[in-house]
Design brief:
The complex is a heterodimer of chains A (125) and B (143).
Chain A (H helix, E strand, L loop, with lengths): L1 H26 L6 H28 L8 H25 L3 H24 L4
Helix pairs in contact in A: 1-2, 1-4, 2-3, 3-4
Chain B lengths: L1 H5 L6 H26 L3 H30 L9 H30 L3 H27 L3
The chains are: A mainly alpha (125), B mainly alpha (143).
Chain lengths: 125, 143
């Protein structure tokens, strides 16, 4: 059970990375297509839901972690922050506000990097 | 093995972070390549292969070797299946990615897709499937 949950949780995390990389290309000025942004946004939606649902399921499945552990609460806070930033990036990209998108995407990228750091180091675990 | 992974020593963390970061950028840039090549944006597809896919593969592979040396998995006889799967998918896919880069480069230079565009898409798709298998092997660690 743990292995399957971890595999699916990792796949969801990779989907978030797909979005971050694809929007980074946009932020760097690459002339991407609408299809690329559509794929990036769907990866964000599925990856976002997958990481939180499977992540919480993993915590409940393992005795050594608790949902009230500091690093898990930190990860959930960062997840909400990343989700909010992601939704704003999607909305502003659709509205053509490209200048604001680059800054918001940078913040989202840093937030996702922070999540990865928490998942690897698990401070306090 | 999975519980061991959950309580790994702290000095493995940086190597794991480098490996994961490289792998995530690699997969993300490969999906970008697929969407661009499929949309006939051959130039961006080629550039992504050259400046994102190949460098991130190197970061992923260096991270993999780094953490393998810390875990001493290469010293185990026989080598665990998940380690063999990791090495074979990463090294096998590198050859495919080099060929895909050459195909995309020639197609972008000629400014028309044709067979080279299809070849690039197929090679990148095979690599992505291989990485899904590698992620499965790394997370479930089959013996």
């Amino acid at each position: 059970m743990y292995d399957t949950l971890l595999f699916l949780h990792l796949i969801a995390a990779f989907l978030l990375a797909v979005t971050v990389v694809m929007y980074s290309a946009v932020a760097l000025g690459a002339a991407t297509t609408g299809r690329a942004l559509f794929v990036a946004d769907r990866c964000w939606d599925v990856g976002g839901l997958g990481t939180i649902i499977l992540g919480v399921w993993l915590v409940l499945n393992l005795d050594q972690y608790d949902i009230t552990d500091g690093w898990i609460i930190g990860a959930i806070v960062l997840w909400f922050l990343a989700t909010g930033l992601g939704q704003t990036v999607q909305r502003r990209t659709a509205a053509g506000e490209t200048a604001a998108v680059a800054t918001l995407h940078l913040l989202r990228t840093l937030t996702v990097l922070g999540l990865l750091v928490l998942m690897v180091w698990k401070p306090g675990a | 093995m999975s519980l061991l992974a959950a309580i790994r020593p702290d000095d493995w963390n940086l190597a794991l972070f480098v490996h994961l970061l490289g792998a995530m950028v690699l997969v993300g840039s490969l999906v970008l390549v697929v969407t661009q090549i499929a949309s006939d944006n051959l130039r961006l597809g080629f550039r992504t292969l050259l400046i994102a896919v190949i460098p991130s593969w190197i970061v992923m592979r260096v991270g993999a070797q780094w953490i393998a040396s810390k875990e001493h998995v290469d010293d185990i006889d026989p080598t665990p299946a998940w380690v063999d799967i990791g090495y074979s998918t990463s090294e096998g896919s590198f050859l495919l990615l080099l060929i895909a880069t050459a195909c995309a480069g020639i197609a972008a230079r000629r400014a028309r897709g044709g067979g080279l565009r299809t070849a690039t898409l197929v090679l990148v798709a095979i690599s992505l499937i291989a990485y899904a298998v590698a992620i499965w092997a790394m997370s479930t660690k089959p013996t």
